[in-house]
């Protein structure tokens, strides 16, 4: 199975700091890379997504950086807030896996006030 | 994006019994999926629910254990059969609208098998 490897497993950041989560993928046919945010007891919610034809996408405090040659992408959360404390999952989809999301292992983010 | 109603939200079941989980979407969607999320873990795809035909299962998942139905473009069910404590997980319905290439997840069914 084509994997998506995510790091770190957990991350602690002070309020106002920058949170950075990294992912690496294997399947070069992937053409859609979303990030999901999940709070306890809830389903994952789409945060931001990128396609490989751009190197960066920004929505508010959330930015995806994409490096196609390295097969890596990352999520940057600027001015992190305690309300951002959640589990974050990266994923990839496309090619023969069209329609099916392959998820990273998840990162538990804790933002201290 | 689509709005998903997933029922039940949680259940405690006896081993050896079966539970059917329902996923209702407020609009027609192209694809429907079922995922499993074990405690503290990531999401693993169980199967793709195909309208009017047998579901497509991922490696490690079989129809006898996880029968799936999708009678129309807005509804699907997942049954967890002959349950054991190892089946205790969160089961999530997900849908994809090709027009927007947007995936939406239901809030999940938290299943505990005792």
How would you summarize this macromolecular structure in one to three sentences?
In chain A, 0% of the residues lie in helices and 58% in strands. By secondary structure, chain A is mostly beta strands.
Write the layout of secondary structure elements.
The complex is a heterodimer of chains A (113) and B (114).
Chain A: E1 4-7, E2 10-14, E3 19-25, E4 33-38, E5 45-50, E6 56-59, E7 62-67, E8 72-77, E9 86-94, E10 97-103, E11 107-112
Parallel strand pairs in A: 2-11
Antiparallel strand pairs in A: 1-3, 3-8, 4-5, 4-9, 6-7, 7-8, 9-10, 9-11
Chain B: E1 4-7, E2 10-13, E3 19-25, E4 31-37, E5 43-49, E6 56-57, E7 68-72, E8 75-80, E9 89-97, E10 102-105, E11 109-113
If you had to describe this structure to a student in words, what would you say it looks like?
- The complex is a heterodimer of chains A (113) and B (114).
- By secondary structure, chain A is mainly beta.
- Helices cover 0% and strands 58% of the residues of chain A.
- Chain A has no helices and eleven strands.
- Chain A has strands spanning 4-7, 10-14, 19-25, 33-38, 45-50, 56-59, 62-67, 72-77, 86-94, 97-103, 107-112.
- In chain A, strands 2, 4, 5, 9, 10 and 11 form a six-stranded mixed β-sheet that branches. Chain A has a five-stranded antiparallel β-sheet with strand order 1-3-8-7-6, with no helix packed on it.
- Chain A is globular and about 45 Å long.
- The model of chain A has no long low-confidence stretch (mean pLDDT 93).
- Chain B is mainly β and 114 residues long.
- Chain B has no helices and eleven strands.
- In chain B, the strands form two sheets. In chain B, strands 2, 4, 5, 6, 9, 10 and 11 form a seven-stranded mixed β-sheet that branches. In chain B, strands 1-3-8-7 form a four-stranded antiparallel β-sheet, with no helix packed on it.
- In chain B, 37% of the residues are buried.
- The mean pLDDT of chain B is 93.
- Classes of the chains: A mainly beta (113), B mainly beta (114).
- At the A-B interface, strand 10 of A face strand 5, strand 9 and strand 10 of B.
């Amino acid at each position: 199975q084509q994997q998506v490897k995510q790091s770190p497993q957990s991350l602690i950041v002070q309020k106002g700091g920058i949170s950075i989560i990294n992912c690496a993928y294997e399947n070069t046919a992937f053409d859609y890379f979303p990030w999901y945010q999940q709070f306890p007891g809830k389903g994952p919610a789409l945060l931001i997504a990128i396609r490989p034809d751009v190197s960066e996408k920004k929505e508010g405090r959330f930015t995806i950086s994409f490096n196609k040659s390295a097969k890596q992408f990352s999520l940057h959360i600027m001015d992190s807030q305690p309300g951002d404390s959640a589990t974050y999952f990266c994923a990839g989809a496309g090619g023969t896996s069209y329609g099916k999301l392959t998820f990273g292992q998840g990162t538990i983010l804790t933002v201290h006030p | 994006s689509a709005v998903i109603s997933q029922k039940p939200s949680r259940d405690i079941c006896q081993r050896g019994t079966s539970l059917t989980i329902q996923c209702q979407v407020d609009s027609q969607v192209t694809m429907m999926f079922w995922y499993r999320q074990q405690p503290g873990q990531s999401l693993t795809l169980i199967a793709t629910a195909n309208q009017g035909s047998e579901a497509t299962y991922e490696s490690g998942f079989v129809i006898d254990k996880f029968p799936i139905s999708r009678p129309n473009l807005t509804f699907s069910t997942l049954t967890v059969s002959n349950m054991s404590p190892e089946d205790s997980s969160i089961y999530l319905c997900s849908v994809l609208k090709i027009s927007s290439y947007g995936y939406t997840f239901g809030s999940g069914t938290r299943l505990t098998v005792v």
